[in-house]
Amino acid sequence: MALSKRKVKYFAAGLLAAAVLVLVIQNSGNTRIQFLFFSGSFPTLVVILGAFLMGVFVGSVMVRKR
């Protein structure tokens, strides 16, 4: 049975989302963030999810530009 490219992409996206979910669940402490003139302490899950969502956004913008 041959898999279509679309099914492979959805499967890969599902695996990535599951990996991020496991990472978030296992890292529930706080972490300190510094960016330019901003610094603060945030829950690690917020930092991980924020970075993931920024990556998804940048990736979707890059795909649309092609």
Query: Strands of the largest sheet, in order across it?
Result: 1-2
As residue ranges, the low-confidence spans are none
Q: In angstroms, what is the radius of gyration? A: 16 Å
The outline comes out as flat
* Beta-strand fraction estimate: 15-25%
Number of helices: 2
Helical amount: 55-70%
Average per-residue pLDDT, rounded, comes to 83
Class computed from helices, strands and strand pairing:
alpha+beta
Q: What's the number of extended β-strand segments?
A: 2
Order of helices and strands: HEEH
Q: First CA to last CA: what distance? A: 30 Å
Q: Multimeric state of these chains? A: single chain
Report the major sheet: 2 strands, antiparallel
Describe the structure using short key phrases.
two-stranded antiparallel sheet; alpha+beta; 2 strands; flat; single chain
Describe what you observe in this structure.
A hairpin with a 2-residue loop joins strand 1 (30-35) and strand 2. The protein is built from two helices and two strands, in the order αββα. The relative contact order is 0.10. Helix 1 packs antiparallel against helix 2 (44-65). The protein has helices at residues 5-26, 44-65, and strands spanning 30-35, 38-43.
Quick summary of this structure?
The protein has 66 residues and is α+β, with helices and mostly antiparallel strands. The protein contains 2 helices and 2 strands, in the order H-E-E-H.
Write the layout of secondary structure elements.
Blueprint: H1 5-26, E1 30-35, E2 38-43, H2 44-65
Antiparallel strand pairs: 1-2
